[in-house]
Every structure is written in C-alpha cells, then in structure tokens.
Amino acid sequence: MELLRSNLSRVQIPEPTHRIYKHECCLSFDTPRSEGGLFVDMNSFLAFGKDYVAWNHEKTGNPVYLHIKETPKSVPEDRPLKKPTLLAIGVDGGFDNNETEYEESYSIVILPDFVSLPFPSVELPEKVRIAVDTVLSAVGAERREQVAAWTADEKKASEHALTLQQIKSGVVIPPSGWKCAKCDKKENLWLNLTDGMILCGRKNWDGTGGNNHAVEHYKETSYPLAVKLGTITADLESADVYSYPEDDSVLDPLLAQHLAHFGIDFSSMQKTEMTTAERELDQNTNFDWNRIQESGKELVPVFGPGYTGLVNLGNSCYLAATMQILFSTHSFISRYFSHQSLKLAFEMAPADPTLDLNMQLTKLGHGLLSGKYSIPVTEKDAATAEARQEGIPPRMFKSVVAAGHGEFSSMRQQDALDFFLHLLDKVERGNNTRPDLDPSRSFKFGVEEKILCSSGKVSYNKRDDCILSLNIPLQEATNKDELEAFNNQTAGKGLEENNMSADEIVRPRVPLEACLATFASPEQIHDYYSTALKGKTTAIKTTGLTSFPDYLVLHMRKFVMDAGWVPKKLDVYIDVPDVIDISHMRSKGLQPGEELLPDGVPEEVMETAQPVANEEIVAQLVSMGFNQLHCQKAAINTSNAGVEEATNWLFSHMDDPDIDAPISHQASDVDQSSVDTLISFGFAEEVARKALKASGGDIEKATDWIFNNRNASVSDMDVSSSSSVQTPAQTGLPDGGGRYKLFGIVSHMGTSTHCGHYVAHILKEGRWVIFNDSKVGISTDPPKDMGYLYFFQRLDN
C-alpha cells in the first residue's frame, strides 16, 4: 500500500473530456477476455495487454494501472435466445446471439514488478477509489461512437404532416386484401396519404422487397407522405410513416385524421407487417453468409496467420474487404508487419498511439497476419454448426484513417474504391519523410496522354495514378446471340427479371481484354486549341502507361446513368483470366519524326479556359434531386469528367463547410509557395500561375485544371526530345514486365456503391479464400466474373 501511496501523484481522476480506453489494447487486439486481461494506465487512460503494458511503463514512467479481467460465467445450455429489439450493439435490447456472459474482476497493479492490490478495498487511497470508479462507470472510447451510431435516432414529426392536402377521391381502403396498384406485390405495401394509392416499397439490394412503385409515384406527383400498411394499430406512433422529401421515417401527428379520410378505423386494425426499422433489424439478425456469396455452397472455415477476419463495425465491409487485400501484398506486409514490430511502432508513436496511423496500421497488420486471433472459438456458429472465429474489430484504425472525413467517419456504407484511394493518400503522406518505405508506391504507375493535333504535331501530358478505371463496352459481349434470344423470350412472355431465378437470366459477358482495349483506344477531343493552327480543332488522344506497377488495380465502371438520367448498375459479367499481359499498353514517348506543338497559348484563350460546369452534367444531377450550386461545384471539381464522378464527389463533400459558398472566378494573386509546388511537379511557372488563378489557389484543382486544359500545358511539362524522357527509375515509380497474375477481388452486391455489401476473395497458398467480414473460408467458386475491383501482381521474368 505504501508503494501505491508513493505513486499517487501519477494517478489522475478522469475528467468528462478524457478518452478512456478499457475494452481494447491500443497496440494489439487484446481485451479483458484475453489470457492476461487488460491494464488501464491511470494517468493517460490508455489500455494495454499483458505483453505490452511494460512498454508503456518504460516509455512514460506511469506505474499505476487498473487491471480488468473477464472470465466466462457458467450458463445453462438451454438458456433461451434473446431476440434483439434495437438495432444496436453493446446496449440493452441490442444483439445478443446467445453469447457467453462474463464476470469482471479488478485489481490495482503497480509496475515494474506487477505488485497487485485488490479492488474494491476501503484500504485504498480515496483518490484511487474515485479514479477507478470513474473509469469503470464511463463509456469506453472504443465503443462510444459505435453505440451512438447504431442506436436508432428518435423519429421526428414531419414538416409536411400539418399542411398535407388530401384529395377527395372517394377512395376507401379495406382493412385487408391489399395489392400494389402497379404490380402483383401483396407485401411491403405503402398507402400514399394524399391520393390513397397503394403501391409497393423499394427493392432491396439483394433483390427482395418491392418494385419501387411507391417512390416512383412520389417522383411523379410530389405527394410527400406514405404509411406502411400492416403497421397501423391502435398505437399510431408505432405505425411506419415515411416522408419522401425528408428521406426518413417520421411521425405524423395527424395520422388518425389522415387515415380517417380513407375510411380507415385504426383502432380495429392488427399489425401484420414489420416497420422499416424492424425489417432492417431482421435483415441484420438473419444475415446469411451462404446466401450472400457463393450461392449457399458449404464453405470450410480456415484459421491461422493471414486468415484473420475483421468484425463488421456497422457498414464497414468496404473497409474490411480492402484491408484484407492490401495486407496480402508484399509491400504492406513488409512495411507494417515483417519489418516493423509493435514495439518499434509504439516507440515512434506520439503520446496517444490511438491517433497515430503508423501505429494503428502496424497493429492491424500484426492482428491480421500473426495468427494470434485467428483461432476457433469455443462456441460454434449457431447457423451452420461450424467452427468460427471472432475476428478482430478495426475500431481504432477506422477512427484514425477516417479522421476529418465526413463520410468515412460515419457509419454509412461507402465506396470501396474511394476508401482505397483515400487510404493510399494517407499512407503516402504518413511516409513522406521515408518514401523508400512507402507501400502505396507499389500501386503507382505513370500515365501518358498523347494529343495529336490535325496539324500533325503532338503534345504529351503525364500524370501518376494508382488505378486503371475501365469502361465496360457492352457492345463487345461474347454472348450476343444468347442475349438476343433471352430478350426476345422475356419480351414475348411479358416476364420481368425480378420474377426469374438467377440461373434463368442471361447477362452480357464482356472480356477484360475488351475493357483494356477501350482504355487505350484513340479518343476524339473537340474544340481543342492548337498552338500550331492558332485556333480550335479536333484532336486525337491516345493513352498509355509509362511504367508498370508492382500491383495493378483495375476498377470496373459498373455504375452508369440509365435513360432518364437514373443511376444504374450494369448487370454484366466480366471474363477475367488468371494472367493478363498489358505490355502493348506501354507508351513510347516522343517518337523520331514527331514534332511538338509550339509553346504559348494566347492570354484570351487562357482566360476563357477558367473551369465552368458542364451544363448537361449539372442538369442530370439536378434531375436526381441535388442542389443546383452543389451540382455546379461537383462538375467543376471533377473537371467535367462525367455524371458518375460528379455524383461521387457530391456524396463525399456534402458536409463541407463551404459547400454553399458561391463559386468565384475573380482574379487574384496566387501564393508563391503554391506556384513553387506546381513547378516541382514539372509545370512551367507561367502555366502554374494561370492554373492557380483559374482554380482559386487550390493546388489539387490547379493540377486537374492543367491536365484537363491540355492546351495550357502544351510541352511545358513535357519533353522536347526523346532523350530527355524521364524513366520510371528516375521518377521513383516501380516498373517491370507487363504480365500480371490475378490475386484479389473485391466484389459488390447492391444497386449502389453506397449500399449493399462488399466481400473479398484472395488467392493464398494456391487456393482462393473468401473474406466476408469476420468469416473466413476456402472458396469453392470465386466470383471472378463479378468483381468491382481486381488486384493483379506483376510477374517478373
């Protein structure tokens, strides 16, 4: 006890602003349930596993720790399964799944000799008792955000309820026997409270649900409120009322009056349908691993190093699928596992290692690759009766990698491609002092665009990239005859695909080679200003690669705009071989006999080249319900690349503080440091100044502006002779042969990249393995033709 009293100055009583960690080690995935329990530093309130707490004592000198240990309670085998009533984790009424209950025990431990004192004890100093009680009663930092995000928000009264105008059509709704007015659906039916139309709900990402007739009716009429039939009872607050303009479930304070308009006596109605929240809860409860992937095939679980699953934190499958593949590459394994120990990363980390990307990537790498956490748990999977693993929760990693990002820091589903690019950018920035250690460089390659003017002269533009985004040329489908026969058959019989089994539907099959050929094929550029002709003309652009990366990532552009400007996912198969050869895609640079376009673009041309939103793109986005100003900004900031790119920008920047600020094109002086930065990229000073002036001083936008206003860069950033071409070695990019082997697939199920589910398939030790969040098993039928992102490794001779 005297030892403790002598160290009281190192004990701190937590304030409300303190982040208290008590559920997971900051350096590993050890928890109070681990063999050695968890040690909470009573000064910093960081938590450490038994194997790591001594490192913290060495680094900080903090000697006093609260030891938390959880041991399983003996529970009767016939304990009934508690059905969750709230879409939440770790709170009363949330998911239970008949998991083992644990009993907590506590003690005060003083390092370095691990002297243990019992807690609770009246003999302990009052300061220690208060500090420990405060820690134990606090919500752990690891769970605070998760619990808050999963707990359903309280429904609010709709702003349209009090002013709702109901049409006197004489419609009387019977108490049962309902059917959609536009199809044969008899479930998931919604009554529009304006005109009394009964229509089916939205189609779910897995094909179930309705046919979208209710929401389509709203788009046609703007009638705002609908109530779900089958959820109306004497307790009107439990009825499921949806507001389409507010895009949320709401309360209707006048629901009784609105129902009476259609002759509905709510007091006599019985509940027969689940509410939207209950259906979402039910879908999460009955999440069927076999149903989602590989057509219900029996998958053998696999354990050991490199086979550790990741716990779904709530719509975090995009993160799990991406990280599993990245930690299957030599570059990430070397950087954050084999050549960097947890102790080294901790020693280099700041005072709070939970906020350090290098530390959390190292923690994640060791968690996935060591095999320490990839072991069968005692209880078998309740649904399959097979051995299972718990997986590791990437909470701290997600928190630090998503910091400051409005979308990735939320619990909403995200685009796996956007996350991949975001992560590589973070990793590159984190390794800027040691670029030789940067694993993101293994994905980088050079892209060269050749512009052939009608004068016969050329210009070359270069940039670095880390993905090849490929359009899918449906006209190159190899099963056109089958497609035509299928379309004729379905049209003749009046069949709809949503009423057919997956085996009956014929989908286009497009070879990957055709997608790659489309990327490299010549493209016309209209209204190109030629410095040789001193006027606008039509030029031809061809694209090639100046280097071949260690790892080649192919992004299949499956999300396009359908007729009527409606976002649509292409229902298409891509025939992807195990080995590809892209040697023919290597660009050759300035060739003998080619003459570069002369320098110098007239000032008036440069001034008129300021970024202006493409009116067609803006119109399409506005028709989808987006704000006009936001749409203009999206088009400008994506250099008018297309509706898909602008839509993705909108989703990522909705919460920007300046999203509603007016667009400004006024001239202004540019910062010299920004000019110097662009000069270091290889641009001429004159072009750099004009680009910054046109882009409001934003370096990233200025870079995009130069690449998308090719007449501005002419040969300023290019070569004047073939002998001055920089090689990949000179630019620091990896390079090698053009043959690649497929080793990873991220596949997506759902109608949008921002909903649905992501799963990874990875080639490990000569066999394909499926990583579906925490579940890891040997794949019997990897979906090579259904990928969203394909990962290839270069095969060097």
Automatic annotation (TrEMBL):
Catalytic machinery residues: 317 (nucleophile), 757 (proton acceptor)
Catalytic activities: Thiol-dependent hydrolysis of ester, thioester, amide, peptide and isopeptide bonds formed by the C-terminal Gly of ubiquitin (a 76-residue protein attached to proteins as an intracellular targeting signal)
Keywords in alphabetical order: Hydrolase, Metal-binding, Protease, Repeat, Thiol protease, Ubl conjugation pathway, Zinc, Zinc-finger
Family: Belongs to the peptidase C19 family.
Taxonomic lineage: Eukaryota, Viridiplantae, Streptophyta, Embryophyta, Tracheophyta
Protein name: Ubiquitin carboxyl-terminal hydrolase
Enzyme class: hydrolase
A GO BP entry: cell communication
Span of domain UBA: 612-653, 669-709
Organism: Brassica napus (Rape)
GO molecular function, one term: zinc ion binding
CDD domains found in the cross-reference section: Peptidase_C19B (cd02658), UBA2_atUBP14 (cd14388)
